[in-house]
Design a protein that fits this description.
- The complex is a heterodimer of chains A (312) and B (399).
- Chain A is α/β, with parallel strands linked by helices and 312 residues long.
- Chain A has seven helices and eleven strands.
- In chain A, the strands form two sheets. Chain A has a six-stranded mixed β-sheet with strand order 2-1-3-6-5-4. A five-stranded mixed β-sheet of chain A has the order 8-7-9-11-10, with helices on both faces.
- Chain A is elongated.
- Chain A starts with a strand and ends in a 45-residue tail after the last helix.
- With 399 residues, chain B is of the alpha+beta class.
- The longest helix of chain B is centred in the C-terminal third of the chain and has 15 residues.
- The radius of gyration of chain B is 29 Å and the shape is elongated.
- The chains are: A alpha/beta (312), B alpha+beta (399).
- At the A-B interface, helix 2 and helix 3 of A face helix 8 and helix 11 of B.
- Chain A: One of its GO terms (biological process) is cobalamin biosynthetic process.
- Chain A: GO terms for molecular function: lyase activity; metal ion binding.
- Chain A: Keywords: Cobalamin biosynthesis, Cobalt, Lyase, Metal-binding.
């Protein structure tokens, strides 16, 4: 038997924080790819500490639902899972290239394939593009559009910015959008000045965050100028300094992310027999691969604008 | 089948029995009081506490008088459940009060079941109406399946809130699948988020009906994650408890400082957070392996094997707060106002502020009483107090 564990942050304060983990785990469940699928959390239950003992499988693939390599993926999760002999060097990563390491969990004697985070997987580039398709309602979106991949920046660690730049570079290399930039909340180039960095009238803003919360629902919309007050919502697209800004919301809520979880596990040797839409090879997805996005653009005004937990 | 006919008389069909027998090991079957030993020629010696019969053919076995069919269908059901040695199997057996294997290492702390195990005939009789068990605020009711097609010992499981035990199922909201438990468990009755799944604040009014064994385990594990696994470890004598010191010392980053929390503070913290009124887990962790906390760990059926993330997060706040030195303050209060402060703190600590009636001004925690006290004793900076001493430890010069 083999199991998949989706390892996410969760929140003590905000019940929405774990929604993406549950949604993507459910999507994997429905495809029957693993004998067992579990969510595990730092701030909710089951905790990282106790998730492995709830599984009957001897072989477990753990995929962190995190954007970048750093404190949580390198220290917290392996420690709490009790991965014997773990050290970050086992990933042999330059900051965005971790694939997996195979270790044993001390308390349960199971084989754990500890994978790199979803955020740095190549297939994440497809999820970003899919997000742009979803928010514009145009499966061919690209020509005449700029795309900004938005990240937190260096507050926690340098790999956070690396992941943003990595995917921005990969989207740019596909030559689908007229302009592609990596923008940040707390370092240059700043997302506040988004319109300074684009000539295109239409700009899609895709925040590389796992869950919608304080940053994606309050900070960014106000900083960018989508709205004066996040509680009143914003238009999609919103007029900002003569540009039309299509704000996509956290990339982690995109359904296609479930495929990235599967890709991570497959890369680590999981025996999985399902079709996957998000592909590693950019050529195979440049033109409308996979299922079409919903035709209706999302509206910021229709969302529930609750305050985020502010913990992630 | 009529109502007067016990359901456990349902027999196995001879083909099903034969294919089961084909899979038994050469020593025969020894399960829950049923012994079947190959007697040669495709026949079997049958022994139960009630019956001994030599050299029985599979066809005769299938036609045997009660309670033999109960033993046979019981054996078949648990063959299907499988998972020998797993928490899932042990839990499902606990649910119907089946005998459990002797713990590998029984200690004085190995929990006893408060209900005696039931031999197969009694268990089948009880399973007709359903056997009720409680797991935290959950009530689990295994029963024999209603469907005559699957009635040959097949169990199904109903799951409700324990307060809904006597209610007409028609009044309960019937759930479709195990993951519906996630939504039910997310908020308490006042719509507030429940970050602690084992808080005694689970809402009632719902029911899961006719779950399979695997679905029951999944649903219970959604309401109370990892409780089955840890209960099973405790039964087997290998619950790995991490005491406060071990958990605190392991923390890094923003939680590294919790290791500085004074011992007496850990005592107060356990009393504040880890008692039955706040969490249904039974606290098994202490301050350190050889240093027990005085506060009781509680009576829950499933153990708490280490301080949870909520306790660690709260400990961080107390670590900061407890670094402040104590000081002496002077303020004017009437004796009744002192009692009122106690009443206010008690009301918040017991979560009963919502229960205090609007006009019950005799209760010190009544809103008007609190507003009056604020009007009388607060100035623009809050409570009107004067500091009369500064603790010696406050500042560099203190020795």
């Amino acid at each position: 038997m083999q199991a998949l564990v989706v390892a996410a942050h969760g929140s003590h304060l905000n019940p929405d924080a774990s929604d993406p983990a549950y949604a993507h785990a459910d999507a994997v469940r429905e495809r029957g790819a693993f004998d067992e699928v579990r969510e595990a959390f730092w701030k909710e239950e089951p905790h990282f500490r106790e998730v492995l003992r709830t599984l009957e499988s001897d072989e477990v693939f753990v995929v962190p639902l995190f954007i970048s390599e750093g404190y949580f993926t390198e220290r917290v999760i392996p420690r709490e899972l009790r991965l014997e002999g773990w050290e970050p060097d086992l990933w042999d990563s330059d900051g965005t290239s971790a694939t997996h390491a195979t270790l044993e969990a001390e308390d349960v004697g199971k084989t754990v394939h500890y994978c790199g985070p979803v955020g740095t997987h190549d297939a994440m580039t497809d999820v970003i593009v899919r997000r742009a398709e979803s928010v514009t309602g145009d499966p061919e979106v690209g020509e005449g559009f700029g795309l900004a991949v938005v990240g937190h920046g260096t507050e926690r660690n340098e790999n956070s910015a690396k992941a943003i730049e990595y995917h921005a570079d990969r989207v740019r290399d596909r030559e689908r959008f007229d302009e592609v930039r990596a923008l940040f909340m707390d370092e240059e180039p700043e997302v506040d000045d988004v319109t300074d960095y684009f000539e295109s009238r239409d700009v899609v803003l895709v925040p590389l965050f796992v869950a919608d919360g304080y940053h994606t629902r309050e900070d960014i919309p106000e900083d960018v100028g989508l709205t004066d007050d996040y509680r009143r919502g914003w238009d999609v697209p919103a007029d900002v300094d003569g540009h039309r800004v299509w704000y996509a919301g956290a990339v982690g809520t995109e359904g296609l992310l479930a495929d990235v979880l599967l890709e991570r596990a497959i890369d680590a040797g999981a025996d999985v027999d399902v079709d996957i839409d998000a592909a590693v090879d950019p050529d195979s997805t440049a033109e409308g691969a996979g299922t079409p996005p919903e035709s209706e653009p999302e509206s910021g005004k229709e969302r529930t604008l609750e305050a985020g937990g502010g913990e992630t | 089948m009529t109502a007067s006919e016990p359901r456990f008389e349902a027999t196995l069909d001879p083909d099903a029995l034969e294919s089961l027998l084909a899979r038994i090991d050469p020593d025969g079957v020894d399960f829950d009081g049923l012994r079947l030993e190959p007697a040669g020629g495709g026949e079997y010696d049958l022994v139960t506490p009630e019956t001994t019969r030599r050299a029985v053919s599979p066809a005769d076995l299938a036609d045997a008088e009660p309670p033999v069919p109960a033993y046979l269908t019981n054996w078949r059901y648990w063959q299907d459940v499988g998972g020998e040695g797993t928490a899932r199997r042990a839990f499902l057996r606990w649910c119907e009060r089946a005998p459990r294997p002797e713990p590998e290492t029984e200690t004085e702390t190995t929990p006893r079941d408060d209900r005696e195990p039931l031999p197969v005939p009694e268990r089948y009789a009880a399973l007709e109406d359903g056997i009720d068990r409680e797991w935290g605020q959950l009530r689990i009711t295994p029963r024999l399946a209603d469907d005559p097609e699957t009635a040959s010992g097949e169990r199904v499981y109903d799951l409700t809130h324990r307060v809904d035990a006597g209610r007409d199922p028609a009044d309960l909201e019937i759930q479709d699948e195990p993951r519906d438990a996630r939504r039910i468990a997310t908020e308490d009755g006042d719509g507030r988020y429940r970050p602690l799944k084992t808080a005694p604040t689970l809402v009632s009014g719902w029911a899961f009906v006719g779950l399979s064994g695997a679905e029951l385990v999944e649903t219970v594990d959604t309401f109370y994650p990892a409780t089955i696994a840890n209960w099973h470890r405790e039964l087997r004598g290998d619950l790995d408890v991490d005491h406060w010191r071990e958990t605190a010392d392991r923390q890094t980053g923003m939680y590294a400082d919790v290791a500085d929390l004074p011992r007496e503070t850990v005592e107060w913290m356990a009393e504040a957070c880890c008692v039955d009124s706040q969490c249904l887990k039974r606290r098994e962790w202490e301050y350190a392996p050889d240093d027990e906390l005085e506060v009781e760990g509680g009576d829950g059926p499933f153990p708490c094997r280490e301080p949870c993330s909520l306790v660690v997060a709260a400990a961080r706040t107390w670590t900061d707060l407890e670094q402040e030195p104590e000081r002496t303050y002077e303020l004017e209060l009437t004796p009744s106002e002192v009692r009122q402060l106690e009443a206010l703190i008690d009301a918040v600590a017991e979560g009963r502020t919502d229960e205090i009636r609007e006009a019950d001004v005799a209760d010190g925690a009544n809103r008007y009483r609190a507003r009056y006290l604020r009007a009388k004793r607060f100035d623009e900076d809050g409570l009107d107090v004067r500091e009369v001493s500064t603790a010696e430890t406050d500042g560099e010069s203190g020795e």
